[in-house]
Description:
globular, alpha+beta, 31% helix
Amino acid sequence: MQLKTLEMIGFKSFSDKTVVAFQPGITAVVGPNGCGKSNISDAIRWVLGEQSAKHLRGDKMEDVIFNGSESRKPLGMAEVTLRLSNVKGTFVSSEFGHYQEIEITRRLYRSGESEYLINRIPCRLKDIRDLMMDAGVGARIHAIIEQDKVDQILSTKPQDRRFLFEEVAGVMKYKARRQEALSKLESTNQNL
Ligand code: ATP
C-alpha cells in the first residue's frame, strides 16, 4: 500500500481545499512552528477513524473543523480524503481488493453528523477499520512517529512495543475480531 494523495477541506488550518501529493520515497513538510505541519498527520489519523479528540490535539471532535481566522469565517464542515494505491494486492481480502486505488473519506459537520466513505460509497467506520487492518494499519497508527515518539518507542514497556509489531504484522485484525466476538458472547450471556 502506498499513500498517493491527502485532500483536506475545512480541516483544522486548511480552510481551502489542499492536496498533498506523496511521491515514491520520502515526503518532507517544512515550515515554521505552528504553521500546520502536524495538522497534516492529524488529518491522516482522523480519516483512518481516530475517535479521540485528544489524540488529534483538540478538546472535542468539532475542533477539527476550520474555526475561522482574522480574515475568514469558520466553516461548517471538515472533509479529508486519503487516496491509497493497492500495490501488491494489499487489500486483496476485502471487497475493494480489485480496485487499483482506494479512497477513504471522512466528513464531520458542526451539527455533529459524520460520514465515512470508501471510494465515494457511504460506509460504516467499521468498514474503514477492517479495510485498513487488512493493510496492517490502525487508527492509532504507530507509523505516525511524532516529535518525542522515537524516545517513547525505545524506552516504552515491552507490551507497548509488542502492540506496534502486532499492528504492523497484521495480527490486530484478528485480535479486534476476537474482542468483538467476546463482547457479543458477553451480551448473549447477559440475555440468557
Ligand atoms: P509545531 O512546529 O509546533 O509542531 P506545526 O507546524 O506542526 O507546529 P500545527 O500544530 O499542526 O503546526 O498547527 C497549529 C496551527 O493550526 C495553529 O496555527 C492553529 O491555530 C491552527 N489550527 C488548529 N486547529 C484549527 C482550526 N480548527 N481552525 C483553524 N485553525 C486551526
